[in-house]
Amino acid sequence: MTWFEVAPEDEAEMSTAELTFAAALRAHSAGWTPTDVQGDVIPANSDGSHTPLIAFATLIDQGDQARELMIAGVHLLDNRVQGDRLDNQNFSLPERPSSLALACTGTHDELAEASATWFRHVLEKPVVLYVWLHDGYIYAARYTFADTGETLSQYYNRNYAPTGQADELIAAGHVHGKGWIQTVGLPTPTWYFHVRGDLTKGAVLPGVLAATRRGPLSGLWYE
To answer: Which residues, other chains included, contact 174 with Cβ-Cβ below 8 Å and sequence gap of 6+?
Structure first.
């Protein structure tokens, strides 16, 4: 697997600085082969509507159904890079930097080395999947970084949840935007599944049983 390859048709549209950065990023990532991750480069727009060069890696759960968990990426901005969790539609940086944020300046080789180190740190973090059951049905699930407890992706299905629970969660403020219920407000999960990474570098919520099978996870996933 070669990380951060650039398509030949894109190379013709890239500046010398962008090509230098991309090549150095590939070199600093050579020999690194994490599983369940895809890495790529998006060149800046050539029509003047400038989107910076973006290098990104998509973290995937290759369970019964492949599921995208998060996109981590960096924006090359002249002599600096900014990295963080990216929007999965337009690859933009978050308005408020998260705990994953990267910001540094330097030569393009230094920026590429810092970016490669950052990618490895983010993508080697331990991930667990928590699941909640009610009357034998899974009604909620959450992918979490086990070292920080941060949510990667989650869903909540009112149809299978305990009666009245959704209204209680909303009343308690465990909701974002237009009704996106946050599973951090739920009681102790029924079980967890170790998805990836070294779990000794993190921690699992106390009292949660380990599972080896995920079961059907049907719902609308969101951050």
So the answer is: 181, 182, 184, 185
> What angle do the packed helices 16-29 and 108-123 form, to 10 degrees?
40
Q: What is the pLDDT of residues 164-186, one digit of tens each?
A: 999 999 999 999 877 899 999 99
Token couple for 18: 């962008």
143-153 per-position pLDDT tens digit: 999 999 999 99
CA distance 52 to 114: 17
Are the beta carbons of 119 and 197 closer than 8 angstroms? no
Closest C-alpha to 152, from 160, 161, 162, 142: 142
Q: Could you give phi then psi for residue 57, rounded to 5 degrees?
A: -135, 135
Instruction: Using DSSP bridges, classify how beta strands 137-145 and 209-210 pair: parallel, antiparallel or unpaired.
Output: unpaired
Amino acid at position 41, single letter: V
CA 14, distance to chain mean position in Å, is 27
pLDDT digits 0-9 by tens, 71-126: 999 999 989 999 999 998 889 999 999 999 999 999 999 999 999 999 999 988 99
pLDDT digits (tens, 9 = 90+) for 53-74: 899 998 888 776 788 899 999 9
Edge-to-edge strands of the sheet including 137-145?
151-156, 137-145, 127-134, 191-196, 209-210
| Alpha-helix residue ranges (DSSP H) falling in the chain | 8-11, 16-29, 108-123, 165-171
Other CB atoms closer than 10 Å to residue 30's CB: what's the count? 11
